[in-house]
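Margin note from the TA: students keep mixing up input and output lines. Inputs are the sequences; the output is the structure of the whole complex. Example:
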Amino acid sequence: MTGAPTVADAEVSRSLRAAGLRVTAPRLAIMAWLAEHPHSTADAIGVGVRERLGSVSTQAIYDVLGVCTAAGMLRRIEPAGHPARFERRVGDNHHHLVCRGCGHTDDADCAVGTRPCLTPSDHHGFAVDEAEVVFWGLCPSCLTAGEPAHRTTNHEEARQ
Amino acid sequence: MTGAPTVADAEVSRSLRAAGLRVTAPRLAIMAWLAEHPHSTADAIGVGVRERLGSVSTQAIYDVLGVCTAAGMLRRIEPAGHPARFERRVGDNHHHLVCRGCGHTDDADCAVGTRPCLTPSDHHGFAVDEAEVVFWGLCPSCLTAGEPAHRTTNHEEARQ
DNA sequence: CTGCTTGACTTGACTCATTCCAGATAGTGC
DNA sequence: GCACTATCTGGAATGAGTCAAGTCAAGCAG
């Protein structure tokens, strides 16, 4: 939470170097933020990171997210109609629950054993390399609220 | 293809009236276009419809698509990183193959019988009402092209 | 420790899909 | 045929994300 280096930071540094990337304050801060707040939007990450580092350009946020996603350190989720979200849980192919109301996103391990849907019956000649599953519904708070009351971009994300 | 009313038009008119919607030229033209060109983008639909009717505002396109989607006559697909696409095949919950290169979309019936993934193992309190499955890969033409050569928005869509 | 090289960050303009607004037009029920 | 109002037109605006040019600093060689 403070700006002090942590054990987690050291781990991130190692991953960054392993990927041939430089270790910079914005990168450490973004990865640290995502460790605490998975499924954050680029915008929410920007807010969180600026709280720690003072000022970071939006462009830097997008750049870091793009580079780390390309390096396989992050996974990008883009629910239809909502801005992209990022998470550090990579490698397994777990899926996601997305709230139609507020866009809140949660992990969902696949129901039917391992990768149940990775083989469509008719692939039309496509070379399929990934099956993405999104479960749409309403999150607990939107359910109790009846109406999706907190449609604000990501207040609750920032403190989730 | 011509502007002449067809049997299909009559069917669409019925559905529109059943939904309490007015029957207008843009609506018939859009539904007719989608019958021949499923998975078209709003933009491609606009081009196609203007070829038949002369001039239709972008706004009308989006309005018709929105209204018909709300009425359950159309289904909207929004692959991450690509503009939304629309199709008339509704009611069944089939899934989609999306090309990472050109965005070309095709239908895929789910491999594991009916709605295999509709029950995530851990729903985190979400009230899930739909499971959306997208198979990502490369379409035949992008495969043979090696590189996704035809990245143009939707030329090939318009003549698919 | 110092200076250099090149990858990373800043700033600001821009694209693209989509939506909002106000006013004109044209389906539908009477 | 007429009135009512849903629907369409045109133009401007929004929000997420990208591009480009220039400045800065991480990390290596000396």
